[in-house]
Write a structure and sequence with these properties.
single chain, 341 residues, D-Maltodextrin-Binding Protein, domain 2, 9-stranded mixed sheet, 21% strand
């Protein structure tokens, strides 16, 4: 590693002497005594082995070496000032970036709306949505490639801090006239004769957790990497799918689709916002997590009608506790799960 003798204060000294052409006036501008500034200049010249200024009486004229340092001094000092200001703004919690990924591509349907709300209050915080890390956001977080991961997998690493966000469930989605639409739930064997449409047939939770353990393989399985495309194909009667219940809620409310639990136990998920616990979270990151906690992709049911979650709450408002979140999203089961619509 290359080490350098020159520091920013040395460039500042050269700049002031060149601008004033005087040791005395430069010392006044730098709030130093004339002998102290003269000693610093001699130290620099001795260390570098070169004369930086020719002395013509009391007038200081830069040499070729001095002019070279002078040519780069303004840019270096300006960059240092900008860097210092940026760090101070980061320390205040108003400037920075959040590198973010989720464990499910469906989240990208509602996440942009929350990002838009957040940046209305924190316009100098850049949100970087890293979709490439969706396959394993926790690994990316641990590797330092993310600042925040939205996941439903259990968190066991003590170096990670998890904030509870909301609970949902994966649901089977069928056309209203499908032969299975009136069942209380779908068992693994019910998928055997179906064309199953999934976002990723090879890495699907329903395949890994329900169908494969039961030795069931659907009659046909297709990957469609667009959630709206999955739902539209189901509405057209071309198969059934499995998505988060809230993703199909608008179509269910209009009678275009039906959602059913998968197995008698269902497929519940507990979503959390996970960050590193090894350092304090910047103010803006805490505010973003608060907003995620206050806003949810789930729908609420009131008087038999499905509505989207209410008007956005101010970001400066602290997030509700988990009990209050449940009250907003729906009725609570004894096991703590929120009813999905």
């Amino acid at each position: 590693m290359t080490t350098t003798f020159l520091e920013l204060r040395h460039f500042r000294l050269v700049k002031h002497i060149a601008e004033t052409q005087s040791i005395t006036r430069a010392a006044e501008q730098m709030h130093l005594s004339q002998p102290a500034l003269s000693r610093q200049l001699r130290t620099i010249e001795t260390k570098l082995g070169v004369t930086l200024f020719d002395r013509h009486g009391k007038t200081m004229i830069p040499t070729a070496a001095g002019r070279h340092l002078l040519s780069v001094a303004p840019a270096l000092l300006e960059q240092a000032a900008h860097a210092e200001q940026a760090v101070l703004q980061m320390a205040s919690g108003s400037v920075g970036s959040i590198r973010l990924s989720t464990e499910c591509f469906t989240c990208y349907r509602w996440l942009p709306g929350i990002v838009e709300q957040f940046q209305a209050v924190y316009p100098q915080v850049e949100i970087d949505l890293n979709m490439q890390a969706t396959d394993d956001p926790i690994a990316a977080l641990v590797a330092g490639k993310l600042d925040l991961a939205l996941v439903y997998s259990p968190i066991t690493d003590p170096k990670l801090h998890a904030t509870s966000l909301f609970r949902d469930a994966l649901m089977a989605v069928l056309p209203p006239k499908h032969r299975l639409a009136t069942r209380p739930y779908l068992a693994a064997e019910d998928f055997a004769e179906e064309h199953l449409l999934l976002y990723d047939a090879e890495a699907s939770d329903v395949m890994r957790e329900v169908l494969m353990p039961a030795g069931v393989r659907p009659r046909r399985c297709s990957s469609i990497r667009i959630t709206d495309g999955l739902l539209n194909l189901v509405k057209a009667g071309l198969g059934i799918t499995v998505v988060a219940g809230w993703a199909a809620a608008p179509d269910v409310a209009e009678g275009r689709l039906v959602t059913l639990p998968i197995t008698a136990d269902g497929m519940p998920r507990h979503w959390r916002a996970v960050r590193s616990a090894t350092s304090a979270a910047p103010t803006y990151l805490t505010a973003f997590i608060d907003l995620l906690q206050a806003e949810s992709p789930l729908s609420v049911k009131a008087n038999g009608v499905v509505h989207t979650a209410g008007a956005p709450r101010p970001i400066k408002q602290r997030a509700r506790n988990s009990g209050e979140i449940t009250g907003i999203l729906g009725e609570q089961h004894p096991d703590g799960l929120v009813d999905d619509v």
